[in-house]
Amino acid sequence: MASSKKLISREEWEKRLNNVKIRKEDMNKLVMNFLVTEGYVEAAEKFRMESGTHPDIDLATITDRMAVKKAVQCGNVEDAIEKINDLNPEILDTNPQLFFQLQQQRLIELIRNGKVEEALEFAQEELAPRGEENQSFLEELERTISLLVFEDTSNCPVGELLDISQRLKTATEVNAAVLTSQSHEKDPKLPSLLKMLIWAQNQLDKKAAYPCINDLSNARLEDPTF
Fold first, then answer.
1. Does residue 205 lie within any of the structural domains?
2. Of 71, 99, 90, 88, whose CA–CA distance to 171 is shortest?
3. Domain named CTLH: which ranges (predicted)?
4. Residue 2 gets which letter from DSSP?
5. Are 186 and 176 in contact (CB under 8 A)?
6. Is residue 59 left, alpha or beta, with left meaning phi > 0 and alpha meaning psi from -120 to 50?
7. Judging by DSSP bridges, how do beta strands 208-209 and 212-213 pair with one another?
8. Domains in the chain, number
9. Does residue 209 sit within a domain?
10. Which residues are CB-contacts of 181 (< 8 A; sequence separation ≥ 6)?
11. In which domain, by residue range, is 198 found?
């Protein structure tokens, strides 16, 4: 019950927070990590100039990575594959799962554009051989080909494959693979820290009533309610 919790006043809580020393350099690195990982190259360059914080990769590679991601998001899968190979051919050579996902997305785009014969030929020549070697690939191929059975894809059980969210999912996987090939974290650190903050507050809520952050967008402390 709330009455059994320890009550921590705003004054005491803020005093405790102020006693926690965080170096500005570490905060700057956290911001730079987010900008680089998410691909905000112009913001990263401006932040580098203003804060003196140097990214751990060449900012020029961010532009190349974002070009790959944008190509996938726009459905230009062949262009994306070409750009990936220009960056590093080993990315797809060592990641058959990702290569299949890209080829599956290419098949989806052919179906989306009504190129039925080309889609069937592409599936048979490029994807079917891979499905014979991997059961999960075969299942995904069968799901994708089933799109051709329905004239109205809104009633298709796998109609979500034609959603833009499917492109975004593939683009995210590509982005992560490129980052990994560059020896960079595939996910920014900031969201993980925010999740840790939420978890810590949830744990503390069981024992104390204190000013907490309910809205992460403004990070304002709010007094506890009873």
1. yes
2. 71
3. 61-118
4. G
5. yes
6. alpha
7. unpaired
8. 1
9. yes
10. 87, 88, 90, 91
11. 189-225
